[in-house]
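Can't paste images in this forum, so I'm doing it all in text. The chain is below; anyone willing to post the predicted C-alpha cells underneath?
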Amino acid sequence: MNTIPIANIAIHTRLRKLQPESVLSLSASVQEIGLLQPITVALMLKETDQTEPHYTLIAGLHRLEAYKMLGKTEIPAIVITATMAEQRLMEIDENLERAELTHLERAEHLSERKRLYEEIHPETRHGGTPGAVGIACGGKASKDVKNTFLPPSFSKATAQRLNCSESTIQKAVHRATHISPETKEIIRDMPAIANSTIELDALASMTANEQVKAVEAVKSGQAKSVRASTASGQQGKPDTVMTTKPDPVEQLLSGKIDWEGKAKHAEDLVRIQEGHILTYKREITKLRGKIKELGSLSSSPVIPPQTDLTAEVEGWKRRALEAEEQCINLEHRIGEMEANLPDQCDRGAALRAVIDEFETALHTNFGEVYKETLEWFESRFTNLVFAIKKAKNQQQ
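Text version of the structure:
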C-alpha cells in the first residue's frame, strides 16, 4: 500500500453516481478514526512530460472525495497494473458487492460487466472464437481445443461471484438491454419503478415508445404502475383517465376491517432489516474468532518467522469494524422506517406490492425463497383468510 498525491489521480466516467450525503458522512468518519480501507488505483502509462507517476481511480470515489473535503493532499492507495477493460471490470465488481444499488443500476452494472467480460474472454461470447464458444456454452469441444482450458460463460462466472443463480444474472442483463436509454433516465429518480423487478420486466417487454408513454402515465398520475398502464391500454393518452380493475384486497382494507396496513408494512421491512443485522452479527462473531486464531498463531514458534500474520490480523479487524458499521447503519435505517414509512405508504399499495413480489418469486425463482419466508407467508395468509370470513359473517 502507498500514499499517493490526490492531484495525480484521474477520475473517468463512472456507472455509480456520487452521493454527497455519503461523502459527508464518510468524511466525519475519516476525521474521527481514519481511513479503514485504502482506495484502489491503476498506474497510468507515463507521459513524456510527467515527472511523477499518475493514476486512474478504480475503486473508492466516495473515500477520495471525503479526503478532498477534509483538505488532504495525499491518500492511502493500493496501486495495480491493469488494462482499461480490467480496470472497469474491477470498478463494477466493487459496486455490485458493496454499493446499495437499485435494480435498474444493478442491471446496468451487470450489462456492462457482460460486455467487458466477453471483451477480455472473447471465446465465451456467442459467435466468438470457433470451437471455443461451443465449450463455453455447453457444447462439444473440437479436437484442436479439446485439452485447452476455457473460462466459464459470463452468466456462470458472475453468478458464482455474486452467489446467485444464472437466471438472476440473465434477467438483469435482459432488463438493461431492453429498456431504452431515454426510459432509464426518466425512471432513475422514480424508485417505485427503478427498484422493482416486476415494473422493470414490464417495461422490458414493451417497445421504446411504449416504455416512455407508460412511465409518463405513472409520473403524471394517470396510472398507478407500469403494469396498470399496460392493463388499461391507455398508454400516453392524456385525455383519458387511466383506471385499473377493482382490487379486492384494497376494497377489503377500505371497509370496516382495519388491518393497520401502514404499520404492518413497516413491521415487515423492519423484520427484513433485523435479519440483515443478525447476518452481520454472525459475520462479526466469525471474524473475531478468526482474529483470535490468527493472533494466537502469530506468537506460535511453529510459524516460520518470515510469515507476516500481523497484516492479516489487521485485515480481519478492519473487516469486523466494517461489519459493525453496517449493523449500525441498518439499525439507523430501521429507526427511520419506523418513524417515517407509515406516513408515506398507501396501505393497499403496500400490501399489494408485498403480495406481487412474493407471487413472482414463487412462480419464477421459487427455489430461492427461504423456507422461513414460506412458512411466514403461509401463516399470515391463513390468518388473513380466517379474518376475511369472520368479517363477512359479521356483515351479513
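The beta strands are 2-5, 9-10, 39-43, 55-59, 74-80. Residues 130-147, 234-244, 302-307, 341-345 have pLDDT under 50 and may be disordered.
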